[in-house]
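User: Could you check the structure of this?
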Amino acid sequence: MKSSTKSSIRNILVSVLLLSSSAFFGWVFWSELNRTVENVGGVVVGEIVEIRGQAQRRYNQQSRWGSLNGSEEVYNLDAIRTSSNSGAVIVLKNIDESGNELLDEISLGPDTYIILDLSGKTRNINFVGGNISASGSNGLTVSAEGTLVTFNQGSVNLKRKEGEQTSVTVTEGEATVKTREGSTVVGTDAVLHINETSGVETREQVALTAKTPKSNDLLLTYNEQRQVDFSWELFADWQKPILEVSSNSSFNESEAQVFRMEAASQARLTLPPGLWYWRVVDTLRDESGPINVFSIDMERKANPISPAENLVIPFRGDAPAVSLQWNRAWFADSYTLEMSRTASFAETPVIREVSGSSILIENLSSGTWWWRITPEYRRGILENPPTVTPRSFVLEQRVGHERITLVNPADNATISALDVREGVPFRWENQEGLVSYRLKVASSRSMSDVLAETDGPENWKTLLPAPEPETYYWQVEGVAADGLPVPASDIRSFIVRPLSGSVELVDPSPGETREIEPYSSHTFLWRSEVPGTARFQLDRISDEDTGERTRIIESLVNGESFTAPLPGEGLYSWRIQILDKNSRTLVQSTEGAFTLRSEFSPPVLSSPKPGSSVSLIGSSALTLSWNPAPGADAYRVVLKAPDGTVISRD
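Assistant: Sure, the predicted structure tokens are below.
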């Protein structure tokens, strides 16, 4: 084989290999780009409880970011970031050695990026950049480049500009900060700055420490406004500290709602719901403390729904389980149910922690029970929690059996015969402990002359198909499973009303003969004493002896007239039916037969023709003929002389 041929084959193979590789890696890139953003096999370590603005999450081993909407679970090794003017609150869950659940709260400020690494014994938050506030238990750490911050049951704010500096501020308790220079404890009176390039630590005395409201506090109220108590500890020698509260972080009155008031260490303001920022400034020195953010939201009361107040729940044998329901409070994490035998709740034999807004309580003894619901909050701080109003219900144990209660027909009810052509529907309340019922219908209140009766376990029956119009009486007896007597029901009566009213055919009236032009229209008229839709029916009778007929028109009419075309002379029949809303016939008219014939015209003489001469020589008879006249039943022939004398009449 020539070398040029070998070279061509080698070039083709290389090209195919390159194209295949490009297609494969292109498919991999496309699959990764379009893969659904979802967690696969991750361990749940907490949940997102609040989102302000825009926040995103990237699952472990995935490249795409997905939006967070709040109330979502977070998984180990999740990466979470916020955009500008945004924030998020994450609650991390942990179980200690005693089996108790511990909750750590992490708040992300604007333009913040963290990665959760909470597997095994280490529980660390990798702080890439931005601003976070954390309140944690022992064992939770935050790492930033060469800095490791350990929580000692405290609250810490961290601010980091990646590659430049990390700042640590403690707002409550203390924290241990470990750097290349060693470990140091930071309290609430100083800020520790760590230079990420040189590792040099700088401790700066803080001017003040904010106490309340804490950063990212959620304040709840049942009202349209809420009082907020502000407090801080001042370390600097400020002569005229001013509290500033703003609806955005700029504290610019042209852009936001801003409140200002002079106060030494505490103040109180009434604010509407929303996101608020606060700080303390010294106008004389043009200095300010840290900016803190909190939010106010309206809460819904967890009012009881059922059982209704003072509801009596009767029972026989064992007491039934009682379902307690209440309104869900929007921000509550759980509820405490308390039940007592007294309104003072001096003793509470039943206490339950409930996650939802209902619970089924069993094994209650008979008597009056009082119950109340208290919402519990993990984050929210409710303003002046109102006194919980208790409700009561009664479990009433009954011995024996009650009288059977009738439902339908109502006493002295009037029923149209049209409605009970298939029978009268009877119904009564089903009673616990009864295994059979006997329904009796009679024509007198003494129930001595029973017209119909039936037995069965159902609490309904249908009897008396097409009953005659009169007054009826009915009663139900019961048989109990325990053999104890069951009081029979009351005796009720009802009246079956006959169909009443009539329909009168007006035009054409029955038996009438009309002369009309062929294929003209006629307006039919009737009068009805019964309201309702009328069904107009028109037949043409083809054989009067056999009554054979053809339906030519049937139509529904609202009113008492109908215009219909008639095909020509002949014998017809029409009828009106009045219908109810279910298209059942309430009443109908008699059948009205009428005859149509064409308008009469005189016969035309054909032989002998008028003015002609006829010879009668050799003939004994004169033959006369004429064309038939439409509508004529018979003819009379009169022969007259020229002077008018009648010669013959037939």
